[in-house]
């Protein structure tokens, strides 16, 4: 039995079933009472069919009249009209009640026999900041981060593409863009260049997301992208169901080309349903998305998708079945073959070392952490060196202070010893001078006693002489009286001076006696303090004392000489 006979049999069975159901309903209507509301409930469908038939004949029936018909008429018309409608539908192949809709619905690829209603221009966003840093980011959660925004290089690429479209006379009416940060910036520049209103800049939330690469996310873009291209070419197949990247633990999906095909199919279906006759620019965040959609439209096997890969800021206008097949070549270019060869080697390394850290973000974090750790250690070593240097300088300073104090102490000891020697020498000199003075005083006293005895004898002899020289009248002769008025006065003054000198000598003897007494410990310490405080005053007093001794000695010797010069007899007697 062929397929045509099966279709006819199925149509016949459907017709029989519908007729049987209609007869059952009609028999049920005979058992229902003739109440108005019951009649309305059972004849509603019949009334709709009758109204449809009247409209086709050009006549209109009143709803109230239709509902007030007798039950028998409505049953007969229902069976009649239903039988005619079902029979016509079964044998003509049309639908029962609804005509064919004009909506496109789900777009079917390739778009060869059924062309697209809109004109599409595919564009890749300009280079992002991460791409400039050779970082491949595909996690949908991080697409809107400003670290993936459009770079200055990307802005220049987008403006060049807009100028190319202007030169070709393209005037887009709709800009549909991904929510990736680079795509948003690119769409804003396109709207500015072509004076497109904000209501015509339409964001697409997830259908235009790039293919997620799982565990290879945030890896070095150039090397990893070549490995993915080689994997897709060797493993994806015509439908793109093979070649899945390794999973990731941070929530990044691990998708094949077929997973991205589902999103792109929904995208084109929505656009073909919403718009008609518009020129639409689709702004993708990556180069694989527009290339994959081009393969779907042109019927190119999906494992060749990367042959049509878009460069940053590249735009291709009027993408349809014919243009896509005109771009695709029969054999891959030598440049693409070299990329695949390098990609196979990189893919082998990736699969042989799955635990190797390739996340640029993590590697950068580790590098920054290592640099921070090195800086911390360097600061710590510097602080330790500074602490050691400060400690060394502090110890040096303390040692220098101790050395200076020790030198000062030794210098004070030497000065104290010198002062002690000087004091002993002064004491010895004082002792010698005191003994000299005492001896001179004793000698002087003896001499004075001798002089006084001589003077006494001379006086007695003078008195005797005067007694002998008295004249007869009992008076002395003027010639024989010696002139001794001035001499006795001089002698008395000298004697007074001698007595004063003797008192000074006695005082000096007393002082010398006091100096000769033993010095106690307290007196010694007091003397040291006074010597340290007023060494200069002590030296001056010593000099004054020696000068006073010299003056007294000179005065005393002068007095003796004067006495001896005034009375030569004294000196002769002393001899």
Question: Any overview of this molecule?
Answer:
With 575 residues, the chain is mainly α. 65% of the residues lie in helices and 5% in strands. It contains 18 helices and seven strands. The protein has a five-stranded mixed beta sheet with strand order 4-3-6-1-7, with helices on one face. Strands 2-5 form a two-stranded antiparallel ribbon. The longest helix is centred in the C-terminal third of the chain and has 109 residues. The protein starts with a helix and ends with a helix.
Largest sheet: 5 strands, mixed
Number of separate helices: 18
Structural class: mainly alpha
Element-level helix/strand string: HHHHHEHEHEHEEHHEHEHHHHHHH
- Record the strand order, biggest sheet: 4-3-6-1-7
How many strands appear in the DSSP assignment? 7
Q: How large a portion of the residues is in β-strands, by DSSP E?
A: under 5%
Question: Mean pLDDT, as a whole number?
Answer: 75
Taking pLDDT < 50 over at least 5 consecutive residues as the criterion, the unreliable ranges are 29-49, 55-72, 92-102, 461-503, 505-519
